[in-house]
Amino acid sequence: MRRWAWASALLLACGCARFPDVGVTGTTRLGFQMETVDPIRTGTEPGRPGAYVYIVALRFSTEDVPTDGGPIPVIGPPWGNGFVAGRATHFMLWDPAAGSAYTLYRFVNPVTLTDWFAVGVPIITENVIQGSRRIRFEFELGQLFPNQADRDALRTMQVNFLTMDRVPQSGSSKLWDALGDSRNITTVNEFVSIPLRTNGSYDNARSGLIEPTGDVSDPSLDISNWRVEVTLQ
Description:
By secondary structure, this protein is mainly β. The protein has one domain (7-12, 26-232). Helices cover 7% and strands 33% of the residues. It contains three helices and 14 strands. The strands form three sheets. Strands 2, 5, 6, 7, 10, 11 and 12 form a seven-stranded antiparallel sheet that branches. A five-stranded antiparallel sheet has the order 8-9-1-14-13. A hairpin with a 7-residue loop joins strand 5 (90-94) and strand 6 (102-107). It is globular, with a radius of gyration of 17 Å. Mean pLDDT is 89; it is low at 1-25.
């Protein structure tokens, strides 16, 4: 369990963890896709050192309609963990410098969000190269909840897509985007709630275009579309 020492250091700290076996039977497949206006910044672009940060924040609930909040972006000091606030149970971090570019993490406390540990890697991922405009991955619910009874109790997954130029612990600002209009402070809580008991496909259009383009100055951070798929197995 570590606070943010940032990407590669975080993964090294968790590198000895034993991940649950993939391909858990009797579970649910969850797919995620996030697209940006301009290509994902991988850190290998000429004259642009350093990758940007792309995260999918998740909160699993046993309620059909959770009323106590979900994952929202950290947009200013006090920075906390620097990337997600509200309530979250897990997140996926895309880090091209890590051994696995896609890694799933679990928060120790879904309210304080100050400590977390790696729990595995998605079973399907899409390689992001220079020019790529999307991040895509799939995992099975059993990877996060190996106990069948725990999986059976879940009813809803709250999701937010987060992009940022850095994960700050100091300073007064960062560039960022998330679901909702980032130019309007009242919309930063626009996470989506996805039912887990039925097959379904959800995207920006189906959700009323809650995520506009042009709401962050750097188009490599500007989310243009998102998609979540639930497949019962």
